[in-house]
Amino acid sequence: MSLTLYDKLVDAHKVCDLPDGDMLIYVDFHIMNEYTSPQAFSGLDTKDLTVWRPEAHLAVVDHVNATRSSEPHDAASKLLIDNLEANCTKQGIAFYGLGDPRQGIEHVIVPEQGLVAPGMLIACGDSHTTTYGAFGALGFGIGTSEVEHVLATQTLRYKRMKTMRVTVDGDIALGGTAKDIIMKVVQVVGAGGANGYAVEFAGSAISNLDMAGRMTVCNMAVELGARAALIAADDVTAAALQGHPHSGQFEFIGENWASDEAAVFDKEFTITGAEIVPLITWGTSPDQSVPITARVPSGSDYVSPKDKAALGRALQYMGLSEGQSAQSIEIDTAFIGSCTNSRIEDLREAAKILEGRHVATGVEAIVVPGSAMTRLKAEAEGLRAIFEAAGFEWRPEAGCSMCLAMNDDIAMDGERVASSTNRNFEGRQGRGARTHLMSPAMVAAAAVTGHLADVRDFTRKTSK
Ligand SMILES: CC(C)[C@H](C(=O)O)[C@@H](O)C(=O)O
Ligand code: SF4
């Protein structure tokens, strides 16, 4: 029988069926952060349980920590960080704390350490665990009670999802990036359009991406509502598995971690590569995006009163007018970071725009490399010098930072941010803060012009 990659992965990890129709699945690797794990450890203590396989877990600090210094910025974050360390020491779990050379955003450091391989099942108390689908692994976010369950038993109760395939075929347009691919997919399928589905990304525009690009696509698939994202493992994946500190720790030999050719999906979407142009979000949902050359929608673009009202609400929060051109939107802040776009490849793309240019007057620009290793690599390549010469603040520590208002990087009420992150909900970067999602190169273009700008104008200028 022909199987999808998703079904192969689920079958390979199924321990048994449960009487209510769910199943029990085995978790190869589990990642924890300081934010979603404390109650899970307390649960273990209360029940006098220990961690069954400490070597199959990793704990990292990334959400609440400051990135200006390796010292916690307040007592509350210090408590969360210290608790995680104490819990891990007690249970014999690896802990990458502040100041550790392996520290960084969970979804950046796991691939960097070589802890993901095709065919694995990875769980983490964080929704963007879908990132590992880039390697042909099944990664998904879990809740705190599930964290406790996986610590104690290495298994989880699981319900098989339906399957969706999104095919993006053909070369993407000039200036388009992996971020634009996934933003376009979210626009077409809709935020929540993949609720209950595991989404596989296929087509030449996907297989042409490097691993960083594939991770960006799978990372943001959760904004579709998908609880799993997958890309077939291929030669690019195989090459990416080599040369990391833990390469070879997890190996799944003898399986073809790709969907069978005749596999049937419950739902299919097809997008033409040429439609992938540089995009920006204008609203408060990740599917509210337009090409940078276009205008913010007007009421007349919508038929239903519900859609018109949603437009009005989003525009009011964002402080924009109907039909305003995307490039007329002036920004206060430029932020390059997050598990979506803070890898070395992202920093290189932004640096290409910034080289020989300067951040516009009045714009605050921040770059937070996704991990300590990424930062050192970027510094060795001369990227830090480019960012700093351009007027960007180069953060010395890694973390989620301004991706969400959970640490000391909080945007102010009304502050408008060009952001390489993945979520633009009301209040995401701070109460009343206005987020525009885009690729890191587009953030760099916005930083130097002071308004949302077309990255293609820069590539044309520099190539003459
Ligand atoms: C705080 C955490 C639970 C959350 C997530 O699950 O994704 C965060 O990382 C996010 O990006 O919103
Ligand atoms: S960088 Fe942002 S999206 Fe990623 S884990 Fe941190 S808060 Fe979540």
Automatic annotation (TrEMBL):
Q: Where is the Aconitase/3-isopropylmalate dehydratase large subunit alpha/beta/alpha domain?
A: 7-450
Q: Which GO terms describe its biological process?
A: L-leucine biosynthetic process
| Top-level EC class | lyase
What catalytic activity is recorded? Answer: (2R,3S)-3-isopropylmalate = (2S)-2-isopropylmalate
Record pathway = Amino-acid biosynthesis; L-leucine biosynthesis; L-leucine from 3-methyl-2-oxobutanoate: step 2/4
The record's annotation in Pfam families points to:
Aconitase
Question: What EC numbers are recorded for this enzyme?
Answer: 4.2.1.33
Q: Provide the alphabetized UniProt keywords.
A: 4Fe-4S, Amino-acid biosynthesis, Branched-chain amino acid biosynthesis, Iron, Iron-sulfur, Leucine biosynthesis, Lyase, Metal-binding
List the cofactors: [4Fe-4S] cluster
Q: Which GO terms describe its molecular function?
A: 3-isopropylmalate dehydratase activity; 4 iron, 4 sulfur cluster binding; metal ion binding
Family annotation (PROSITE patterns): ACONITASE_1
Keyword Amino-acid biosynthesis listed? The answer is yes
Alphabetical list of SUPFAM superfamilies matching this protein? Aconitase iron-sulfur domain
Q: What InterPro entries does its record include? A: 3-IsopropMal_deHydase_lsu, Acnase/IPM_dHydase_lsu_aba_1/3, Acoase/IPM_deHydtase_lsu_aba, Aconitase_4Fe-4S_BS, Aconitase_4Fe-4S_dom, IPM_dehydratase_rel_enz, IPMI_cat
What domain of life does the UniProt record list for this protein's source? Bacteria
Oligomeric form and interacting partners: Heterodimer of LeuC and LeuD.
Summary of the function given for this chain in its UniProt record:
Catalyzes the isomerization between 2-isopropylmalate and 3-isopropylmalate, via the formation of 2-isopropylmaleate.
State the NCBIfam families in the record: leuC, PRK05478.1, PRK12466.1
What is this protein called in UniProt? 3-isopropylmalate dehydratase
Q: Which species expresses this protein natively?
A: Pelagimonas varians
